[in-house]
Amino acid sequence: MPVDPLHSAARPSRSAPSPLSSGSEAYAVEVRRSSRRRRTVSAYREGERTVVLIPARMSEAEEKRWVGVMLDRLAAQESKRMLGDAELADRAQRLSGQYLDGRARPATVRWVTNQNTRWGSCTPAEGSIRLSHRLQGMPEYVVDYVLLHELAHLLVPGHGPRFWELLDAYPRTERARGYLEGVVAADRLPHLPAARSE
C-alpha cells in the first residue's frame, strides 16, 4: 500500500512532440539543441507547446532530467498567480467532476497558514477542505493532486485500497507524490554555511 506523502517525465520526442499535462492544460514538448549554447538550459511556452533549449552536447539522460526540471519550473511560475479561495473551490469542483464523477462535494475549500506539517486536511462531517499555504507557488499538478487527495477523503476515510483506487484515475499522482517527497527531504537537509572565498 502506498505511503501517504501528504502527512510526512515523460521522454519528449523531437520529431513528434509528446503532450505533457501542466495542470489542466496539455502542452507538446519540443527540445531544441544548440551548439552555441554551452551550459544553460531554458524553456518557454510557445502557443500550444513548450520549447526547451539545451546544449547540443548534452546526453539523453541529462536531456530527460532537464526537461522535467524546466517543466516543473514553468508550472511553478504559472501557479504563482495566486489562486484565491473561490478559484480553489472551482478547481476542486472541476477535479471532482473529472476524476470522482462529481461525487465529492466540499462545502468549503480554502488556504490556511496554520498547517506546517501537512499539505492538506479535510473534515468530512463538515465537508471542509484546507490546503497549506506552503503549496502556493508549487506546480499546478501538485496542487491538483493535494486537492484530489482531500476530495477522495470526503468519500473514503483513511488510506486503504479503496482510497488509492480513487486516486489511480489522476495521471500525475506518482509525479506529484515524488515532488512533495522531494520537498520534505530537502527541508530535512542541514543548512550549510555559505562558502567563503579566500
TrEMBL record:
InterPro entries referenced in this protein's UniProt entry, alphabetically: UTP_pyrophosphatase-like (IPR053136), YgjP-like_metallopeptidase (IPR002725)
One family name in Pfam for this protein: YgjP-like
Lineage: superkingdom: Bacteria
Residue ranges, annotated region (Disordered): 1-27
Domain YgjP-like metallopeptidase intervals: 110-180
Protein name: YgjP-like metallopeptidase domain-containing protein
